Amino acid sequence: MRRNLIAGNWKMNKTAAEGVALARELKDKLSGQCCCCNGPQVLVCPPFTTAAAVAAELKDSCILVGAQNIHWADNGAFTGELSGAMLKDLPVGWVIIGHSERRQYFGETDETVNKRTKAALKHGLHPIVCIGELLAEREANQTNAVLEKQVRGALAGFTVAEMATVVVAYEPVWAIGTGKVASNEQAQEAHAFIRSLLVTLFGTDVAGATRILYGGSMNAQNAAGLLAQPDIDGGLIGGAALKAADFATIVAAAK
Ligand code: 13P
């Protein structure tokens, strides 16, 4: 039985003070309804500069805190990047890797996603590895080929044991920030395909245990339908994660 994970990707939003206020509101709204025992795991991923204050605010709650990127090296001349040890300093326990915005605007490739994911595991962080096709790729019937390339590239060289902490997020690029959500059927079909790839690469036990999150315009209205799909094990939420009430509704839908 896979436990749902509801993760908020705050992207480049919220200063430390704003992030603490959102975290506090979230904590209030979720008290009693999540997430320590039976409910879904709940995670927020603020910007680096906000994460420490948010982690302090959420210290005694069951809401987890993550980051939005990690470098593969332990230290060195990599201006603007942060290492695994630095993330643990914040402290965070999770990290989003290979988000389509990083692929689109910052030159992230399957190879760098692979290196960053390896670094996350080396530092005991839980990676959320993002994959997803562009609209043009979907329209050209290339969705499965793109997903296969991304999964094989991102997870190349991983052992079955390492896969135990890896979470995959399917985020169709055309659905991110557009309000154009994938239908329940489209999302389920992609998730089932990703799981079948995991069977091929790592066997049925790993494939059966790996959580695959859906991301892309998930909100308080459409979450229940998506989360009811057999191969959707949670959500990676952007815009709706910035509103405590909406995020709490999504968490409730994941029970
Ligand atoms: P939206 O929920 O704003 O579409 O963003 C999804 C996303 O990119 C989460 O990582």
Lay out the secondary structure.
Elements: E1 5-9, H1 16-30, E2 41-45, H2 48-57, E3 63-67, H3 84-89, E4 94-97, H4 100-106, H5 110-122, E5 126-131, H6 135-139, H7 143-154, E6 167-170, H8 184-202, H9 204-209, E7 212-215, H10 223-227, E8 234-237, H11 244-253
Parallel strand pairs: 1-2, 1-8, 2-3, 3-4, 4-5, 5-6, 6-7, 7-8
Bound molecules: 1,3-dihydroxyacetonephosphate.
1,3-dihydroxyacetonephosphate is lined by residues 9, 99, 171, 176-177, 215-218, 236-240.
Overview of the structural elements:
With 255 residues, the chain is an alpha/beta fold. It has one domain: Aldolase class I (TIM Barrel). It has 11 helices and 8 strands. Strands 1-2-3-4-5-6-7-8 form an 8-stranded parallel β-barrel, surrounded by 5 helices. Helix 5 crosses helix 7 and helix 7 packs across helix 8. The chain is globular.
At a glance:
With 255 residues, the chain is of the alpha/beta class.
Q: CATH topology, anyone?
A: TIM Barrel
Task: Return residue spans where pLDDT drops below 50 for at least 5 consecutive residues.
Answer: none
Strand tally is: 8
Q: Main beta sheet: strand number and arrangement?
A: 8 strands, parallel, barrel
| CATH class category label | Alpha Beta
Strand order of the largest sheet: 1-2-3-4-5-6-7-8
* Cα-to-Cα separation, first versus last residue: 13 Å
- Please give the count of helices: 11
What fraction, in percent, of the residue positions are helical? 40-55%
CATH homologous superfamily - what is it? Aldolase class I
Which cofactor or ligand species appear?
A: 1,3-dihydroxyacetonephosphate
CATH architecture: Alpha-Beta Barrel
**SSE string:** EHEHEHEHHEHHEHHEHEH
What is the overall shape?
globular
Strand content: 5-15%
The helix-and-strand class reads alpha/beta
Radius of gyration: 17 Å
The number of domains: 1
